[in-house]
Amino acid sequence: MQIRQALEKGTIELKISNIESPKMKARLLMQFVLNKSRQYIIVNDTQNLTTNQEEMYKKAIEKLKKGIPIEHITHQKEFMKLTFFVDNNVLIPRQDTETVVEEAIKIGRTIKNVQILDLCTGSGAIAVSLAKYIKNSKITAIDISHKAIQIAKKNAINNKVESQITFLESDLFENLPEQKYDIIISNPPYIKKDVLKSLSKQVKKEPIIALDGGYDGLDFYRKIISKAYDYLKFSGYLILEIGYDQKEDVIDLIKKQDKYNKIYCKKDLCGNDRVIVTY
Ligand code: GLN
Known about the structure:
This protein is an alpha/beta fold. The protein has two domains: about 5-65; about 75-279, Rossmann fold. The chain has a seven-stranded mixed sheet with strand order 5-4-3-6-7-9-8, with helices on both faces. The protein has a two-stranded antiparallel ribbon with strand order 1-2. The protein is built from twelve helices and nine strands. Glutamine binds near residues 189 and 191. Glutamine binds near residues 187 and 188.
């Protein structure tokens, strides 16, 4: 079978199974199977697939039809123009989170030899991006999951920033020695328990501990906000990713502490409230 024929067949099958962006996904799987660029596939679309490649492609299409996220098949996700390895032990980095990282970069670049703490690092997307884009930054990246830490380390090595990041397996601050940071950043689990059930087939294949924010979705904000101040330098910043409807609740939690002077919120590219910064 030719590349073009396989692509057409794959696209139709994905469409029938109601998979979003079927054409693009069929092509991305082909790139993955052949380990070739988009350009190569367009230029060489009459090339015949080997039996092995055809088999591999079919299997990948079947997985996608079952709702397995494409990133779990290709094990790759682009984030902040960097490539991250992902599997079902970590949340797939979201574009929304780039807004959070961009705000942190802006702040981080104003601080000399900035020291950053990243809580709930998961794949390490935030920690690795900050290390990459803020010169001389030093980052401590924490996750409760051993497997997530392994993946974050791998991503730091792949992106050549491992010397800037210290990894620690810990339930938030639990195993963290007393130390003061310029910035504490986190994209914690923030989905309400009863909303978890209604997430898409694809999102349900991601680790629930990376999504479950408890009954009101605010469990992690409560814990982080009440402890963060002890780990922040006098002029330090706390930067939190939030769900689109959590701005008021999270601001209330911060105000209750009566420790921070300023709070502001930034929207993501879709126009949803996404980042809370306090200092
Ligand atoms: N933004 C993610 C989602 O909607 C949730 C991320 C999180 O809980 N931190 O699936």
